[in-house]
Amino acid sequence: MSSEALARRIAAIADAKLGTDLVALDMRGLVGYTDFLVLCTVRNERQGRSINEDVRRELKPEGLTPARVEGLDEGEWVLIDYLDCILHVMTEGVRERYRLEQLWGEAARLDLDLQAA
Description:
Blueprint: H1 3-16, E1 20-26, E2 36-42, H2 45-59, E3 68-70, E4 77-81, E5 85-91, H3 92-98, H4 100-103, E6 108-110
Parallel strand pairs: 2-5
Antiparallel strand pairs: 1-2, 1-6, 3-4, 4-5
């Protein structure tokens, strides 16, 4: 699976679990550690953990397991690192505080077209 297809797949899974404000930033040419960052806002920690579980469960049969997962204990910011694509699942307050979209403002946004997914 290409890194772009992986970003789209991860975003679609998060969208199905009612994650909001989904954004995929194309990091190719900007950093060497990943191709895409997918950002997702959740209402609470429980929803964040649920999205984490679904992403991992749905990608595992495709032979994809994360290199690392961080933040599950706290749940306000869960990071799931698939190397070519990193998912950041954040509560609204955390997302506003860290402003990753602004930090990586020069990154192109991938058109996710989630209504068709």
